Model the fold of this input.
Amino acid sequence: MKGVWSFVGLAILCGVFCSGIEAQKLDKGVGPYGEFWKPIPTQRYWAPNYFYSPPEEPKGVYQADECTLCHKALNPGLVKAWEESSHANLDKLLDYQKEKLAEIEKNLGRKLTKVGCIDCHGKVGAEKLDHEKELAMPSPALCGECHKQEYQEFESEKQYGIPDWKPGRESHAKAYDANLDVDVWAAVDKNIVQGCDMCHSIQHKCDSCHTRHAFKASESRRPEACQTCHNGPDHPDIEFYRDSKHGSIYLIDGKNWDWNKPLKDAKYISPTCQSCHMYYKGQYSHNMVRKAIMGEGDVLFYDNVFKGIKPTDYLKNSKELMSRREAWIEVCVQCHSPRFSRDYLDSMDKASDSVFQYVSDAYATIKSLYEEGILSPMPENRPKAPAPVAEKYPDLLGGFYGEFWAKNGNQSRIEKDFLYMWENDAFLVRKGLAHMNPNGFTYISWSNLLKKYVDIQSEANALRRLAALEKKKLRARTKTKNR
Amino acid sequence: MKGVWSFVGLAILCGVFCSGIEAQKLDKGVGPYGEFWKPIPTQRYWAPNYFYSPPEEPKGVYQADECTLCHKALNPGLVKAWEESSHANLDKLLDYQKEKLAEIEKNLGRKLTKVGCIDCHGKVGAEKLDHEKELAMPSPALCGECHKQEYQEFESEKQYGIPDWKPGRESHAKAYDANLDVDVWAAVDKNIVQGCDMCHSIQHKCDSCHTRHAFKASESRRPEACQTCHNGPDHPDIEFYRDSKHGSIYLIDGKNWDWNKPLKDAKYISPTCQSCHMYYKGQYSHNMVRKAIMGEGDVLFYDNVFKGIKPTDYLKNSKELMSRREAWIEVCVQCHSPRFSRDYLDSMDKASDSVFQYVSDAYATIKSLYEEGILSPMPENRPKAPAPVAEKYPDLLGGFYGEFWAKNGNQSRIEKDFLYMWENDAFLVRKGLAHMNPNGFTYISWSNLLKKYVDIQSEANALRRLAALEKKKLRARTKTKNR
Amino acid sequence: MKGVWSFVGLAILCGVFCSGIEAQKLDKGVGPYGEFWKPIPTQRYWAPNYFYSPPEEPKGVYQADECTLCHKALNPGLVKAWEESSHANLDKLLDYQKEKLAEIEKNLGRKLTKVGCIDCHGKVGAEKLDHEKELAMPSPALCGECHKQEYQEFESEKQYGIPDWKPGRESHAKAYDANLDVDVWAAVDKNIVQGCDMCHSIQHKCDSCHTRHAFKASESRRPEACQTCHNGPDHPDIEFYRDSKHGSIYLIDGKNWDWNKPLKDAKYISPTCQSCHMYYKGQYSHNMVRKAIMGEGDVLFYDNVFKGIKPTDYLKNSKELMSRREAWIEVCVQCHSPRFSRDYLDSMDKASDSVFQYVSDAYATIKSLYEEGILSPMPENRPKAPAPVAEKYPDLLGGFYGEFWAKNGNQSRIEKDFLYMWENDAFLVRKGLAHMNPNGFTYISWSNLLKKYVDIQSEANALRRLAALEKKKLRARTKTKNR
Done:
């Protein structure tokens, strides 16, 4: 082993040499705003389906069993991870995995002894690979050649999403394309917004959850498997889960649970992300968007604010959402009484109405300032956001683009507060309730929501007073002139 | 097992049917402000002593051994948790638990083979239960029928609390009633402030720490058992512990410790929440409020700000608090030198004086604006908080009610900053020190405190300048008129 | 054991008695600003090399084997921790530890049976100790008498640090002295800024990472060993790691890894703090500052803002930093392709340029307000920071001193926002990228950076409008007078 690691130095030389080469696929962007941006080199890895091309070095055609000869020296860590995988140990599978293997072999029409580098980075079953031309980053479709059911489940998310929105939005299976639809993402430095890509890449990469190259199912069944994307100010899922009673029990007791069991057999005494979100009407699957209303922040506390539709009305008028709610209740009932489950989720909706009221009031304040010409600066007097961001009303009064771009008064602080109010805090009250995290929806989200509401009212007050003073002054000056 | 889970669908039907029924106990609130609010359905579960009544379905009388027949299908998770409990496995107890059992049996005057659903959800030792009429959510008093000592220890908290405050405030044993005493809690949407209930329910529910239905003592001895309530911006106990050296050692090494041992025998090499907070003069108990000064934020950095009493003076003049301090030092000395322990806690008090100075200065600024009529809006020109919130001086200048309610300038941002300053940051400097978390009291709390102090001073400056301009303008206008 | 613990009460008496005594070494500060401050008692423990002196009690000379007689009763926790240490169990060492022991014994010229209290708190190999006169807190130099190589590696950090800065700044090995160089640290209440000491004490205390008294190497190899210092708003290293995919794998799988192996043999399938930061060109050592650019916030986004040098230019013009980068890439390549590794770190630099632009724009705004006399209050009209803080341009426009001290407009909120912008957010975009935490550099840091940028622009706008109004008013008044 030691010898292997000492080869690293040599291998680096190759790496350094290879690294300067740009693949031609990086010439232009893709998606509706593709003309406005150019990919950066790392996007080859975030969206390999769109941008990947092999490095120029090494050249040559390699046999399937030659890969590790070099990569064990060059990247010992990744080879070691693969050596720990089921792919490398098809003879040591668990019973349920053996059944899966038998099915895969039946589909492929041949026996498998191992799944090696070339099967995923070239073609399934390939015997050799032209490194410079054929090397590929595996996509869900490629994984799906063996893992058919899982792939189909994952792809089926494309049929779900937010009612009245494009199908599959929001879903994991169209996450990257959702990114491409965002004007401000297209507009700003890709070195920054590749942060969006790193999560939204899940459309192109099964290893978002099943981390390479060990791909342990036991790992992807753990809440931590979700946390790299599902954390932070706009979706603190893992934070809310971790500190909830559900999460606390997991943290204390989880290490004693059998993570090798498929979810349907595991039945932990406390839920995980997976055991709730992958469950739907008695089954567990890779379609995780059939119960919850994804993107609630955008619909409940933004779109609907402009329409004046409060959450309980919106929800109860949607047959689809009401049916998802019933499926949600079924999850809770596994451990809680049906009366409690229903009452609790009802209270989440009613709480959302209170949130909605504050967001609507804040918006009304800003809208009124805008209509009276008191915003400072007014949209016409400030820099425009770069193309393709189209600043259309009401989006120009605190729209999402302000999350990633700002310039000299666009946005001003009152609109930025509003942006955070609907984009983060409002939704998080609901999310805190959904994840049974009491601080999550009170001292964290509700308090933050009120803080911004307060700042908005005080700022509006100051803007009005300044405008009034300037008006008097102007009038005075005019009078003086006219005297 | 599989068969059992497939019954869920059927069982749901019952749940759905039962859920529409409102118990009559939800008619009116309780406590000093009971007339101002009406409970929501979920409060049946947060304060069962006050609001619980059984669902209308199922009807009928059930024998003790019939419960799991239905609930195994309806709520398999909770039955599974119970099956893992000591209650279900009285034949597999640890030695110290056997002693406890013997004592319990002696008190009850009979042998126990198991503790089942009916014992806790009906009456201890009951043989049958009229589900529609007799089903109950267990209270500490009910748990105390068997667990006498633990119950008595828990109840004994009612004699402690903050000197000069109501007895038992702050304590776990009167936590829910403390909630009921808060005017703003009574005033706002219960669907939001049930977040307060979910923690303050500890007065009514032993399963806040001993989570149902496994009730593992080994779980309740872990810091994570406390975290669902003890986290967040106003009391980041678990956050401060986790990142402290104490917590780091626990996180690394804790899984190797024997959590089945009672605290008095365990003697971990790093403290947990329990090993410090349950300790008092050589004993461990369920009374956790005999050493620390609970509610410090309210006393040290709010009440005393108005009185002008700085922390070191307040503390050294209280015989009771000085005696608690001595008990606190005893805990530290288990691992640290007495000189270090004493000096360190002294430095926490002296640091509190520095905090106090900033809070007092900020308050003086706001008070002065108020007296000069420069707050904007002035209390008389803004919406009143809903009853029963009584906006009395000094509470109207940044009082606690602003944490949960706001409307158009009540509170304005300068008062909101002050609220967060005393309610969160000030106290957290002290808490960070108490939990030996260096960032906790510097870059987190002290910095946040100064940030708000700075915002308050700058806002005061802007308010004064605006007022001065408006006054001149007014004067000018008056002069013009009088000319 | 029980008997031992009941002695605590007695032992406390001694502690209480001893605690009133101040050591003479606490008379005055040390370092360049030593004349401006006096140490507090706890600093004896944060910087024992400078301030420690033994307590007056107990008096007398004790034999090596007498220590635990008393301390087992007085501080059972610390004795228990020592009993778990390798120091107490030299007969149960792992193979690689036996080799180390043999080497140590060769250097000392004698066999060791155990390493006891007196060896570290007195002199290595001492047989007795005059408690009142000779008791010492061990320094790295003392640990280095046995652990030569580790000590030398640690000390070697003093030769590294930020190019063009004092050698060893930033390094662990000169961390406390770096503290002493900070004017605001010298100026403010030591009870507060001992929070800085508690981390910067690493210069004087190996037990910052190797926590006493068990000193388990298996513990110090875990990421949690770093977290007590490396967390929080100014350096959320552990937070960014924990939620990254690297950290998630560690959290899930790490407990199965063999922590008893030295890093060079361990080769985990996901990196830890240690496996990246202690690695340098094929070797692991206690010098952790040879790859990264420490203190980047101060250089890239502060010093260089005033000089107008953007990050990519600064980095590519430094031979030293470019060579560190190559060493950094070698770490990534252990698991990632060289092309990806290089491209990714390049994108981190390019992202830094975008950050730099916002910081520069914000600074230009504040500088312009300053030059026009519009800051409110202007530096000449506000309280001066206490000595030895020298408010020199540009530091007076949002310099570091504002992190720990504020008074009535010094700093004002626009400068405070700028301070947080360069000191926290700007750097954290880079840190989030470095630690592969997508939310870390987008919704957390980039968003926070833009929020402050926006607040600064809006505040500047308000300040300008107020100043313009006051100027008119003044002019009007002057005109009236002159009329």
Remarks:
- Residues 1-24 of chain C have pLDDT under 50 and may be disordered.
- The beta strands of chain C are 61-63, 128-130, 279-280, 283-284.
- The longest helix of chain C spans residues 438-482.
- Residues 296-482 of chain C form a domain with the Hydroxylamine Oxidoreductase; Chain A, domain 2 fold (CATH 1.20.850.10).
